[in-house]
Specification:
With 122 residues, the chain is mostly helical. 78% of the residues lie in helices and 0% in strands. It has seven helices and no strands. α3 runs antiparallel to α4.
């Protein structure tokens, strides 16, 4: 199997809106190359898009454990936890992402939304 060609194909599927197709291609690549963060990140995003949130969480926690300075992995993990109705858990990761990349509007918007939810809207 040409892993690079499969990764490119999976990226194309993902970008065209076929996250399920991307998952099918990415899972064996992550199995073959567990240390490849780019592939793991795309797989996590594809899981998120297909509402396989527990699987997305597993991949994102692996990324954050390997590289605690990966602000994007923290952000997507926070969004995943938020979507799983775990706002308190999400808040920690959204705060980390926003602190590392304060100019990112998506990060600050997600952080404010979850802070508001945790504080009861006050």
């Amino acid at each position: 199997m040409d892993l690079l060609a499969e990764y490119r194909r999976a990226t194309m599927f993902f970008e065209m809106g076929d996250a399920s197709g991307a998952v099918r291609l990415l899972e064996p690549i992550v199995e073959a190359e567990p240390g490849n963060s780019s592939v793991r990140q795309l797989l996590a995003r594809a899981y998120f898009q297909t509402a396989q949130l527990h699987r997305a969480e597993e991949q994102l926690r692996e990324l954050v454990d390997r590289d605690p300075s990966d602000h994007y992995a923290h952000h997507v993990l926070g969004r995943t936890l938020e979507r799983m109705n775990r706002p308190t858990d999400a808040l920690r990761h959204l705060r980390i992402a926003a602190a590392m990349h304060a100019t990112n509007a998506d990060y600050t918007t997600a952080l404010r939304r979850v802070e508001n939810r945790v504080s009861g809207g006050h």
